[in-house]
Amino acid sequence: AKPTLTVIIIFLNAEEFIEEAIGSVIAQTEEEWELLLVDDGSTDGSTAIAKREAAASPGRLRYLEHPGHKNRGMSASRNLGIAEAQGEFVAFLDADDVWLPNRLERHLEILRAHEKVGMVYGPTLYWYSWEDGNSSHDSLRDHPGDLSLEPGRPVPPPEALLRFLHTGGGSLPGICSILARRDVVESVGGFEEDFRDLYEDQVFLTKMCFKAHVFIHHEVLDKYRQHRASHCYQAIETGEYDPDHPHPARKRYLIWLEEYLRREGAAKSELMAAVQQELWPYRHSLRYVIRSSAAFRYVRKAMKEYLPPRTYHWVSQRLGHHFTVVRKS
What is the CA 246 to chain-centroid distance, rounded? Predict the structure, then answer.
């Protein structure tokens, strides 16, 4: 019989954590699942671990890899899992993260109760206390993500996507915290393979929240491990990613989203206006730095207070955007 759920774990050189991730799937209270272990060209012991686990549970666990054991990136690896999935629903778990035992059961109940909802997600625990030696100190740093939307209701498109943009991505769920209908995932085209690592999840969530109703669950049911070998930490070290300032990875995502909205006939939508606002710092970087300074804000306030309105308007036109305040992304 076909499983109700397909769980997809992609991995690349994850021998330190992958057994714990697999164990958290096996421990689920919901039992009608299959687990696909997608190898993205690992060169460490994680390949052997995944093959061993799959051989121990044939028919329920399957090992997959790209032709020639190539490394093709996170999006292509998730798409390989989607293409091989047999379940009506799909869930994603990264090899360094874990689920609580009732994760699948809770989310499946919601999707069965709300037939028009294409995806359910909840807050992820940012998990610092996973290391035994630091548990007493880092447990104080463990915290759930803020989704910035009221839980417990279906959210029509594109409400959640607008919130993602207005919070600079701060309200995004973790990829390990979603459960989606496979037919909806396939209808939006799955993951964009041009995004090999950074923002691959946000691009996928963008398409889902643009096309489908989503349901926000209030429970924390998964743990997002914080460690320096993760993609995000490595990107911060190289300057490709910075959660507090404009950075190259976000610019690339926003340019993709701008083109995506044009293709989807939403060029004059509220979404496009939000994207243009987010892109402003990248397209006017020098003016953005000047306009964000305390000295400029002081001068602007003084000009508005002391100059005649027509003069102020003339000056503001030449400096651009009528001195409107642009929010940092």
Answer: 17
Handedness of CA 108, 112, 183, 154 (dihedral sign): negative
Q: Give the Cα separation of 313 and 306 in Å (integer).
A: 12
| pTM listed for this prediction | 0.83
Record the tokens describing residue 71, joined without a space: 């490394």
Bridge-based pairing of strands 89-92 and 5-11 is: parallel
The whole-angstrom separation of Cα 35 and Cα 25 is: 8
Q: What is the DSSP letter of 96?
A: T
Upper half-sphere CA count for residue 73 (Cβ side, 13 Å):
13
Could you tell me if residue 326 is left (phi over 0), alpha (psi between -120 and 50 degrees) or otherwise beta? beta
Full 3-state SS string of 153-170: CEECCCHHHHHHHHCCCC
The answer to whether the Cα torsion of 289, 295, 299, 305 is positive or negative is: positive
Token pair, residue 88, equals 């009506």
Kindly report, residue by residue over 35-69, the tens digit of the pLDDT.
999 999 999 999 999 999 999 999 899 999 999 99
The pLDDT of residue 294 is above 70: no
